[in-house]
Amino acid sequence: MEEQFDKGALLDRNSLRSLLVRKDFPSRVRLTLHWLAFIALLIATTSYASNVFVAFPLCLALAWVWCTLFAPFHESTHGSAFSRAGANRVAAWFTSFPFLMAPSVYRTFHFEHHRHTQDPELDPELLGKPSNAQNPITRQDWLILVSGIAMIRAKLQLVWFFSFTPQAQWPQAIPWSTHCRNPGGMAQECRLLLGAWLVVGFFVLIGLPGSLWIVLAWWSSHVFLMLWISAEHTGLPNTGSIVSRTRTVGSNRFVRWWLWNMNFHAEHHAWPGMPWHNLPAANAAIASRLEATSP
User: Fold this and answer.
1) Contacts of 227 (CB under 8 A, 6+ apart)
2) How far is CA 70 from the centre of its chain?
3) DSSP 138
4) First vs last Cα of the chain: how many Å apart?
5) Alpha-carbon distance 10 to 17, whole Å?
6) CB 117 within 8 A of CB 269
7) Mind listing the pLDDT tens digit for each residue in 158-209?
8) I need a labelling partner for 267 at 20 to 30 A (CA). Which of 56, 131, 161, 280 fits?
9) Contact in structure between 268 and 249 (CB atoms under 8 Å)
10) Which helix (H) or strand (E) holds 233?
C-alpha cells in the first residue's frame, strides 16, 4: 500500500524516503524465527497433552505466538515485509492459513480500513455500527469484546461467503468487496483455505492427540488478538488527522518483537507502506506530535 495519510508533514521528505526503504533480511530472519517457535510449540503442546500442568502453559504460549503470526500476515499483505512482490505474496500465503483469512480478502478489507479509519459508515472494522468505534461501557461489553468470539465468527462467515456466494451478490452484502481487484481469485483463495481448515477440523473431530489443547490455543489466540487490536483505534475520534484517529502504544521489547512493531500504529497508519523495522525510528522522530498514545 503506497498511499500516505499524513496530512501534516510530520516527517521531512528525505527522512521519509529513507524510512520507506524495504529490506529482505529483517523480515526473513523474523519470520523464520516466528514460524519455528510456532511449530515447536505445536509439537510440544501435543507431546505433553496428557500432563495438564505442562500442556496448559505451553498452550498459552502457543496461543500468543499464534496470535502474533497476524503481524507478518498483515505486513506481507501490505507488501512491505519484503522488497519483492513475489516474496510478500508467498509470506502472506504461509501466514494466512493459521490466521484463517485469504490474503486477498484481508488486503481488500484492510486497505479500506486504512482509507476510512474510524468512519462508522465506511471503515470495514466498524461494520457500519458507530458503537464499535467507542469503548465498551459495561463489564459484559468488555468481556464480549475480548472473548474473540466476534472475530472468529466474522472470519468463518467471510471465508464461507466468498467461497460459495455468487459474485453478483457480493456488493450488496459486503460493500467493501467491490474494491477487490480479482474477485475470482479471491473466491478461489477462500475455497483453498476452507478446504485446508476442513482437513484440520476432521483430525480434531477424530480425536488426534492433543487436539483439544490446539483448539484452546486457537481460541485463546483470538483473545490475545482482540486485546491487541482494540488498543489501536477504539475510543478515538471519528474525524481529524490520522494520528488523532489512531493510537500508538508504548510497550516492552518482548511485545514489540512479536508484534513486529505494530504497537507503533499511528506511524503505520500515517505511512502504510513503511516497513515494520523502520517504525521505531519514525516514532522517535514524531513522538512529540502524536495525539493518541498510551503506555
Assistant:
1) 146
2) 4
3) S
4) 28
5) 13
6) yes
7) 999 999 999 999 999 999 999 998 999 999 999 999 999 999 888 888 878 8
8) 131
9) no
10) helix 211-233
Residue 93, CA distances (Å) to 12, 75, 196, 235 in order: 35, 12, 12, 32
Q: How far apart are CA 35 and CA 39, in angstroms?
A: 6
Cell 500442556 belongs to 55
Q: Are 59 and 215 in contact (CB under 8 A)?
A: no
For residue 38, pLDDT over 80 is answered with yes
What are the two backbone dihedrals, phi and then psi, of residue 136, each rounded to the nearest 5 degrees? -55, 150
- The Cα 243–Cα 260 span in angstroms is 19
Q: Amino acid identity, residue 280?
A: P
Select the more confidently predicted residue: 145 or 158.
Answer: 158
Contact status, residue 267 vs residue 274, Cβ threshold 8 Å? yes
Q: Is 98 within 8 Å of 66 (Cβ atoms)?
A: yes
